[in-house]
Amino acid sequence: MSKFALYNVVLKDLSTDARVYEYVLDEAYFKKIDSEEVQKGNIKAKVTVQKKSASFELNFLLEGVVLVPCNRCLDDMEQPIHYKDKLQVKLGDKFSEEDEIVIVPESEGAINVAWFLYEFIVLNIPIKHVHAPGECNKTMVTKLKKHIARSKDDDDVDVDLDDDELEIEDTNTDPRWDGLQNIIDNN
Assign residue 41 a region: left if phi > 0, alpha if psi is -120 to 50, beta otherwise? Predict the structure, then answer.
């Protein structure tokens, strides 16, 4: 028996009534998936399967949180996941994905949604994920401030790690560049 047998959705025996599958995607699920991007979380997934004339429509609803490392301080942070989407599935000769339609072998008559659920979760994690201002690990923020590369002339540089990004603001300008700024301003 496959480690993802629980996530098999049988299509060929489905009547016209909608069938609902509910899953709790917890730490055990993420360990089975064995991917580095998300390893912990607690998400409630609801998959509603409805037979259409020549295809099946799978409606996904995901609600919960995953733990991901903060891009700034590397401590774990909770990232909320709220996702709702549809997937069209047809029965055919062999498994394939064409545009927005997944084709499942008619001989099997089922689709395993475990990997689809994981992909939907990962695609809903923002590229940049950081704690809210003031919630980052104070020790790490202090070390970051200490080790930001600066030259000797950067005495007036202000480093602000409480915003969404590391920002370095230089208030003094080099007088050699002021002449070029006048050219830009006059055009």
Answer: left
Q: Residues near 39 by Cβ (< 8 Å), separated by ≥ 6?
A: 27, 30, 31, 67
> What's the pLDDT tens digit per position in 120-165?
999 999 999 888 888 888 888 888 888 776 655 555 444 455 544 4
- Give the pLDDT score at 167: 47
**Structure-token pair, residue 55:** 């295809």
Span between the terminal Cα atoms of the chain, in Å: 73
Task: State how beta strands 157-160 and 101-105 pair.
Answer: unpaired
Rounded Cα distance between 58 and 60, Å, is 6
Contact 162, 135 (CB under 8 A): no
Q: In whole angstroms, give the CA distance from residue 178 to residue 127.
A: 37
CA of residue 155 relative to chain centroid, distance:
39
The whole-number average pLDDT for the span 6-23 is 86
To the question of pTM greater than 0.90 for the whole model, the response is no
Q: Are 111 and 95 in contact (CB under 8 A)?
A: no
